Prior knowledge:
One of its GO terms (molecular function) is tRNA (adenine(22)-N1)-methyltransferase activity. The chain is an alpha/beta fold. It is built from eleven helices and seven strands.
Amino acid sequence: MLAFFNGLPARLRAVARMVPPGSRLADIGTDHAYLPIYLVTSGRCPRVIAVEKKWGPYRRALAAVANAGLQERVEVRLGDGFAPLKPGEVDTVTITGLGALTQQDILTTGAAVRQALRRLILQPQGEAGPLRRFLATIGWCLEEEELVYEGGHYYFIMAAGQGESPAYSDVEWRFGPLLLRRRHPLLGVYLLQSMEKLNAARRQLLNAKSERARARLVEVDRQLEDIREVLAWLQDSAK
């Protein structure tokens, strides 16, 4: 089982570590069902529901579960988001590899299922800040955060439970309040690379004349100032 765990993508290993032992879990957008297979074979979850809305990935998940001989412990369901689930059927949900807006839509349309959960574990593709804010608006509070670098990309992973969220600053929402609190070792490198990309975008925007470009330039400058502020804080705290 250790070999299988090591074969999981790093982002899924980080997700697995956030799953409370004994959870009744559903994995939304399961694709090959690698995460559900690991969770049951490792003993972390007694049973997992793997949900996939597209026919091709659904069939791949069925085949992977059958090859592992886990049909009695991993149930693969075809459907969109929380639609294949009943309220109270699971207490933990993982959603990985989907865009932040898609994840927000799933959590909004599946409110009845969501309200019966104890933990959400989310790994959005792209920017994570809006998803952090969204969780607070629907009554969820960040409990854990992780940052993973894999295959040339950074992945933000968050676990949340029901409860009132602290009133974080804009910078905390954007970069992750718990990552900042931990002074996560990858955060500084991530910020430096983000600064390089923003500076490249800024150079192009300086030559643009449209109103939209000028508005974007203002936003880029604000983001650069936020990054400089956090980098200075990280440097001072390391002394």
